[in-house]
Design a protein that fits this description.
eight-stranded mixed β-sheet, about 220 residues, 8 strands, DNA-binding
DNA sequence: GCGACAG
DNA sequence: ATCTTGTCGC
């Protein structure tokens, strides 16, 4: 199965085959090296296009080093459980355009906290063979206790008896965000690294910047 | 069958 | 995600 076939399934059945075929490649092992460069990616949409933006930062300083974008036609409409086929092509291309190679990827969506453990972060992490973390604004599957109101508190996301990630209070008083490992990283490391990326807002700074970037490029295309 | 459902 | 202004609260 080549890259083209993986990124562009013709229907849900093919998408299922692809997710099942990639699952054996998933490895939730400790990071081999402390990341010095991390990249965050997000996507914006117009009627028939997906606009992906990726921002690369030094870590842990979080100084912006590089940004890239990619605008691709929307070939697969969004459906819960299949986000990677909707945003994946554009995000994959944007990340591929980076001159520097990130040692960790942050994606706007789930990692293994997914019905088939194949959320956007896991999917992209496996395709690029780069450690990745999923950071979503809402839950897809699993149960969790509401973390206490103060920033820094968290609780486990449990699905089918397994800990798939954490609900994290990233800002005092705000709704929690949902962290799950994507690939080549552990749940605990994922939580720790995301906390190191928090500023005064609910969304981790790298992802906020990627969001602004894709939004800005989208407007420029209108 | 009913309800849930990343972006 | 996207369509959209002001407004209530810490």
């Amino acid at each position: 199965m080549n890259l083209e076939e993986i990124l562009f399934p013709e229907n849900l059945e093919e998408a299922d085959r692809i997710q099942a075929a990639l699952l054996p490649k998933l490895k939730l092992i400790p990071l081999k090296k402390k990341p010095k460069m991390i990249a965050a990616a997000d996507a914006a949409f117009s009627e028939h296009q997906v606009i992906a933006g990726v921002c690369l930062f030094s870590f842990p300083e979080l100084e912006l080093l590089e940004t890239r974008v990619a605008v691709e036609p929307l070939t697969f409409p969004y459906r819960p459980g299949y986000l990677s086929f909707c945003e994946g092509p554009a995000i994959f291309k944007a990340i591929s355009r980076l001159k520097h190679k990130p040692e960790l990827l942050l994606l706007d969506g789930q990692g293994i906290a997914h019905p088939r453990k194949m959320g956007l972060a896991t999917f992209i992490g496996i395709l690029l063979e780069i450690p990745s973390i999923g950071c979503a604004k809402s839950i897809l599957v699993g149960q969790f206790q509401d973390p206490r109101i103060k920033k820094g508190n968290y609780s486990e996301i449990v699905y089918r008896g397994e800990i798939m990630g954490y609900a994290l209070r990233s800002r005092t008083g705000a709704k929690p965000i949902f962290i799950s490992p994507g690939h080549l990283i552990t749940p605990q490391e994922s939580l720790n690294l995301i906390q190191l990326c928090l500023s005064e807002y609910r969304i981790p700074e790298p992802l906020r910047q990627a969001h602004f970037l894709s939004q800005k490029i989208k407007l420029a295309h209108l």
